[in-house]
Amino acid sequence: MKPIYLKHVEASQTLLINEQSRLMQSEGRKIYKFGFGQSPFPPPDHVVEALQQQAKHNYYSPVQGDPELCEKIAQFHSQMQKLDIQAKDVLVATGSKILIFNIMASFTKASILIPAPAWVSYEPQAKLLGHEIVRILSNYKSHWRITPEMLEQALASRQDKDAQSILILTYPGNPDGLNYRVEELQALAEVARRENILVISDEIYGFINHTGGHRSIAEFYPEGTVITSAMSKWCGAGGWRIGVAILPKTAVELRETLLGIASETYACASTPLQMAAIEAYNLDERIKTYLHNQRRILSLIGNASHQRLVKAGLHVHAPEGGFYLFVDFMPHKEKLAARGIHNSEALCTEILARTGVALIPSVAFGMPSDHLSARLAYVDFDGNAALVAAAQQEGKLDETFLQNNAKHTMAGIDALANFVTYNNLD
Length: 426
Ligand SMILES: Cc1ncc(COP(=O)(O)O)c(C=O)c1O
What we know:
The chain is of the alpha/beta class. It has two domains: 13-42 and 286-421, Aspartate Aminotransferase, domain 1, CATH 3.90.1150.10; 46-283, Type I PLP-dependent aspartate aminotransferase-like (Major domain) (Aspartate Aminotransferase, domain 2, 3-Layer(aba) Sandwich), CATH 3.40.640. Helix content is 42%, strand content 13%. The strands form three sheets. Strands 2-8-7-6-5-3-4 form a seven-stranded mixed beta sheet, sandwiched between helices. Helix 2 packs antiparallel against helix 9 and helix 10 packs across helix 13. The protein starts with 12 loop residues before the first helix and ends in a 5-residue tail after the last helix. The mean pLDDT is 95. Bound molecules: pyridoxal-5'-phosphate. Pyridoxal-5'-phosphate binds at residues 37, 95-97, 119, 170, 174, 202, 204, 230, 232, 238, 243.
């Protein structure tokens, strides 16, 4: 059979770089795996034990998700985010990726407004659905945040003014690890309300905001915001594929459409996983401590990395959540050009070859290809050992903790800093 009209969809860039560094490692090279954005932490023991006990559940759950789990998720998010969420507002699926896709798929005509830089999959998803894509280019000075003015400009540039506008906001951000201030969320909410924009608020890193107290744009625009989240990042369970959407109470038709799509595609999230997730979304002392220690560790490593990279003359903002830094090499543009490096892919290839540091080129996040920047995921350390060590140490984690638990990570950061400092880029 010779397929015709086949869609062309490339494998995600983040998976490709992982493959490349695995290959180099198999050749005996020392690699710092800062490419793949996977949580370094395992799920808590009691949640893993719950999964072991729940394997017998072989029935399909309701499409929306197991009722007890939806209840627990509603309570968890309400408590953590000071929002009024009820079980009926919650949708559980096989990861939040498919939920984001299905929200976009719920519309026959949509303009998807995506900041740049932003997570790699939004654009390919929108493209698969045939929706118009409008990029909103942010910059280092604006902390890689979009402003109401940028949003308005993007709206004005849409080709199809009748289509449903859907804005995707991610905070803490991937690839930047940065948050929106409350006033910034309020100002964006104002534009969204006035312009009838549906906001997909991707808050998958919300609970590993480094200082806790994650706030959502849904506080200011409840009727037009869908929050998406998952166990993947805060609970170290990407492979468990448990994703969550919290729908506006008034979005009755959108809910029906999403349930319809779910019932005709994945049917429900895996039942044993949902049963185990009930333990994860039970906000007891174990979960609070687990989250607290993750935040302490990520903040320590992220900030130490940030300081070393800034010292090397790179543009990087101090991290506020999650486990990413968006590293901007533009201050060294001319020196890099002199070495024949004119785009982010060439930059990352050169860095990997010279230092063993694997990064994702910013073009994958929607930046113009000649913008010399990259995402760094500071996750190449033993998360389990770090959690055990953090639990035994009260107060602020210090340099000794860093040396004992993230030596390899910091060596990678130093290798990257040295690439800039000692390779005649200064
Ligand atoms: C910003 C962001 N959104 C969504 C996802 C999708 O995660 P999942 O499908 O595991 O819930 C990811 C995963 O890397 C992500 O980084």
